[in-house]
Amino acid sequence: VSRRSSAAPPSDRPGERRGAEMKKLYGKDAAKMLAMEAAMQLNFDRNCDLKQPKYWPVIPLKL
Amino acid sequence: MQCGWPLLGPLQWMRYVNKQVKVKAGKDEERRGWLLTVDPVSASLVLVNFGEEEGRASVQVVMGHAVEEVEVLQEADEETTERLRTSFLPPETRTLDP
Amino acid sequence: SIPSSSDAEQLPGEQHARSVLRESFLRCLLAMANKKIQFQMYERVKVEATFRASDIDVLNFQVSDLHTPIGVQKEALIRCQDVISFTFDA
User: Fold this and answer.
1) What is the rounded distance in angstroms from the CA atom of residue C27 to the CA atom of residue A36?
2) In this model, does residue B81 exceed pLDDT 50?
3) Any idea where the domains of chain B sit in the sequence?
4) Domain for residue A33, yes or no?
5) Position A19 in a domain
6) A33 in contact with chain C, both atoms CB, cutoff 8 A
7) Which residues in chain A touch residue C80, judged by CB atoms under 8 angstroms apart?
8) What class, spelled out in words, does domain C33-90 have in CATH?
9) Closest Cα partner for B61 from C47, C43, C28, C87?
């Protein structure tokens, strides 16, 4: 059963909601986790931009 | 632990850390190893098996969505815990003590 | 997907456990960079590739030199949903 905390602000500002969600998940470590994740995602995005990898296999094995 | 592995949550997953576990995943394939961590986002397990040589380890990651069953075989002794902690992650890794 | 326990009581203990587990997993992903990885996938597919990066939601792995049954794909994305497990030597 999944339900959003009523403390979470409405999602018109994605960046902030992400911060609020991280705070809820990681408490006092939220800033550190956010920083680690941001660095990793940036690396992934940059690699994909640079190398333009294609999905393999083209059709998912598991639908 | 039979099913619902991805739904257990951090406090339950934590109880498997530093234990030798047997994991059933996919087509009944069985994997064993010392549980280093569980990704709280994907519920994936990181299993470590140490080789004969000092400092060699093989790492197996089982995706959370594929997990059918996780069974604890034994607890790590102090030496194994230390090897797990220092095996392949950068040295600044925090200890997994609560 | 985020497990449903995240909406249980907001215990600092649970948050701490989550961040310890997550940090350790992210470090594991970082340690995998540029290593040869063997992927065990559904439909008995087994392939080898050089790991480069993962997105943080663990939905896609970006790899190089993927040895597929019909040749080498220089750059590829693997859907994590297709993967059962993967191994590498540390």
Assistant:
1) 9
2) yes
3) 5-75
4) yes
5) yes
6) yes
7) none
8) mainly beta
9) C87
User: For chain A, what percentages of helix, strand and coil (3-state, to nearest 5) are there?
Assistant: 60, 5, 35
In a domain, A32, yes or no: yes
What is the dihedral sign for C-alpha A48, C59, A39, B48? Answer: negative
Q: What is the pLDDT of residues B14-54, one digit of tens each?
A: 999 999 999 999 876 899 999 999 999 999 999 999 987 77
**Sign of the Cα pseudo-torsion (B89, B93, B98, C5, in order):** negative
Question: What's the pLDDT score for residue C90?
Answer: 84
Q: What single letter denotes the amino acid at residue C76?
A: A
Polymer length in residues for chain A: 63
Indicate the residue type of A37.
E
Total domain count for chain A?
A: 1
**How close C25 gets to chain A, by Cα (Å)?**
11
Domain map of chain C by residue range? 33-90
**What ipTM does the predicted assembly reach?**
0.85
A59 touching C, CB under 8 A? no
CATH fold for domain B5-75: SH3 type barrels. (2.30.30)
List the pLDDT tens digit at each of the 63 positions of chain A: 344 444 444 445 666 778 899 999 999 999 999 999 999 999 999 999 999 999 999 999 987
